[in-house]
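Q: Predict the bound structure with zinc ion.
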Amino acid sequence: MAEFVEVKTQDLSGAALLVLNAHANSLDVPFPHWIGGADADQGPSYCRSCAEAEVAAGRAEYVDGGWQQENDGCCHCETCGRLLDYTLTEYGASEEIDHYMGTELAGPISPEDAFHIAKMLEQDEKNPQALSIGIQAAELIKAQESAIEAAGLKVKP
Ligand SMILES: [Zn+2]
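A: Predicted complex:
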């Protein structure tokens, strides 16, 4: 019985992740880059062109990174604010869960929302709160899509 429940939970999170990731698929999310060198601040993350701009401006000697990193929260370029790819630490995922549990999840779910919720669920697919948020978001996305489809059918000749 316990085994059955576990399989079912994985199916549900897999299905939710499929919907969330498909919805986030329109986003172009680059990996984070960092800057290095004697006086460079290695803390912030940048998109590639902003990291290169730091080097060009003489604030760093070289560009580092270009891969996914574990974060305690979502990851944005220090300069331009662009969303960068990340995975969440356990702490980061629990912060995200707290955030989503504290707000009423209502549509429309943007591709960026879907991206963040998928990252949260991917960190621990067995977490019942993460799963419930993920499923709720996936259902909202599906409802949005069928509403768009229905509207599309009406305007077709
Ligand atoms: Zn940037």
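A: DSSP finds five helices and six strands in the chain.
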